[in-house]
Amino acid sequence: KRCHNPDQRPQSANHRTMTVIRAIPTIQASCRTASGTHVARAIRGSGRVPSIIHGTRPDDKELITIDHSEIARLRRKPWFWNTVYDVEVEGKGIFRVIPRCHQRHYLYYQKTVNVTFMKFQPFKRHLIQVPVILENEDTCIGIKRGGLLSFNQDYLKCWWDGDENIPQQISIDIRNMDIGQAVHSRNITLPDGLVPHLSHHQYSFASVTGGQSAESIEAVKAATSKQ
């Protein structure tokens, strides 16, 4: 849903990003030599997920399989897409990667059918998704006045050209948002090295609609007092 006045935004809202130095998690994987539909179906039937690690060249790739429960556990974390992993491939060594693509089953949404990784190179440009978290919903002015909160986008797709310490999330404090106000990407200051994927596009993360804003209530009171 769109706000009543797109140009109006909460002036005192606090928008910040979190950069946390995290230990690089390890994913255990096995090497595979064959590919194709029948091979992939057999791998999934054994409880594993066919995956691939791409490098900088078209011929630079590693065919691997990962335990499905391991992928399911990692996918439940909101920062899956902006975390660097060490994939330990049996007999091949350790590859430092970042997730690029994740395919689910078309009927069983919780089942992963394929995962693609890219080899991570520090200070080279990588496309990531950073989670957007709304804070203080229970004290939001607009919601208390009967407004409806619309959370329009829970991730921001960005280019990152830093090291492994990718910002964990973008936290937006909405306690001062009133009805008819919205938070756009232009209101958020991103850390160095993080650039929106579509820098010319204005993303709307959250808005409060419905009910009556403080300005509307004051206007009604003023009109009533003149009668």
| Main beta sheet strand tally, sense and closure | 6 strands, mixed, barrel
| Proportion in helices | 10-25%
Bulk shape: elongated
The end-to-end span amounts to 35 Å
> Which whole number gives the mean pLDDT?
83
Task: List the total number of helices.
Answer: 4
Can you describe what's shown?
This protein has 227 residues and is mainly beta. The protein folds into two domains: 26-121, Ribosomal Protein L25, Chain P (Beta Barrel); 127-211, Ribosomal protein L25, C-terminal domain (RNA Polymerase Alpha Subunit, Chain A, domain 2, Beta Complex), CATH 2.170.120.20. Helices cover 15% and strands 38% of the residues. It has a six-stranded mixed barrel. A five-stranded mixed β-sheet has the order 1-11-8-10-13, with no helix packed on it. Strands 9-14-12 form a three-stranded antiparallel β-sheet, with no helix packed on it. A hairpin with a 7-residue loop joins strand 6 and strand 7. It starts with 13 loop residues before the first strand and ends with a helix. The model is unreliable at 1-13 (pLDDT under 50).
Features:
227 residues, mainly beta, Ribosomal Protein L25, Chain P, RNA Polymerase Alpha Subunit, Chain A, domain 2, 2 domains, six-stranded mixed beta barrel, five-stranded mixed β-sheet, 14 strands, 15% helix, elongated, disordered N terminus
